[in-house]
Structures are given as structure tokens and as C-alpha cells.
Design a protein that fits this description.
The protein is rod-shaped. Helix 1 runs antiparallel to helix 2 and helix 1 packs parallel to helix 3. It has 4 helices and no strands. The protein is mostly helical. The longest helix has 32 residues. It has one domain.
């Protein structure tokens, strides 16, 4: 086994561990934790691509990569859920702001208020 083959195994192992750890508590992961996971994962994918430029994966490594990628649909679903939650929050905030502005006085500084006596 050459060093490139071992490097592929190492990166796949790290990718598998990272993905498995994230998936254990997927539903409770915040947007910051999800972003951190995606950044770490992208770094590992970059390392893997560098090695794959000089060494192809064997069938066992390809199977492991497919297993890891099998989680992508659930991860993307979680990310979409976080996006929708943030979008809903922004919509509610915008609605609250517009409702509040109706009640705030926006009088011009130099305007006059005149009362009529009956």
C-alpha cells in the first residue's frame, strides 16, 4: 500500500468520523454548528481531491465515500430547515417593525397643532 492510498484512507476516516458525529445530534445543531461542520467537511474534501489527482480510489474506498455521501440528503434537509426558520424569523421581525412604526409618532419638528374651541 503506497502513501497516497493511505492518505485516502485517512481522509475518508476523518470524513466519516466528522459526519457520524454531526449526524448523531443533527436535529439539535444550530446554524453556526452546521456552518462549522460544512467548513470542516469542505477542507477534508479538498484534501481528498488533492490526493485523487495522483491516486485513484479502490472499490472499498469508493464504497466508503458513497456511504458517507448517503447522509447528504438528511444534512441538506436540516440546512433547509435552518434556512426556513431564519427566513420566518426575518419575516416576523419585519412585520413587527412595520406594525410598531404605525404607532410611533413621526411628527415634523416645525409643525403646529391647533385646537379649535367650540
Amino acid at each position: 500500500m503506497n502513501s497516497n492510498h493511505a492518505a485516502i484512507n485517512t481522509v475518508l476516516s476523518e470524513l466519516s468520523h466528522l459526519t457520524h458525529s454531526f449526524m448523531l445530534q443533527l436535529e439539535t445543531k444550530s446554524s453556526d454548528e452546521t456552518e462549522n461542520f460544512v467548513n470542516k467537511r469542505q477542507a477534508l474534501v479538498g484534501q481528498l481531491q488533492e490526493v485523487l489527482d495522483v491516486q485513484e480510489m479502490d472499490s472499498e474506498q469508493q464504497h466508503e465515500l458513497k456511504r458517507i455521501l448517503g447522509y447528504d440528503q438528511r444534512i441538506q434537509g436540516h440546512m433547509l430547515s435552518l434556512k426556513n426558520e431564519a427566513q420566518q424569523w426575518l419575516t416576523q421581525r419585519s412585520a413587527a417593525r412595520s406594525q410598531r412604526s404605525v404607532y410611533e409618532n413621526n411628527y415634523a419638528v416645525d409643525s403646529y397643532l391647533m385646537d379649535k374651541r367650540k
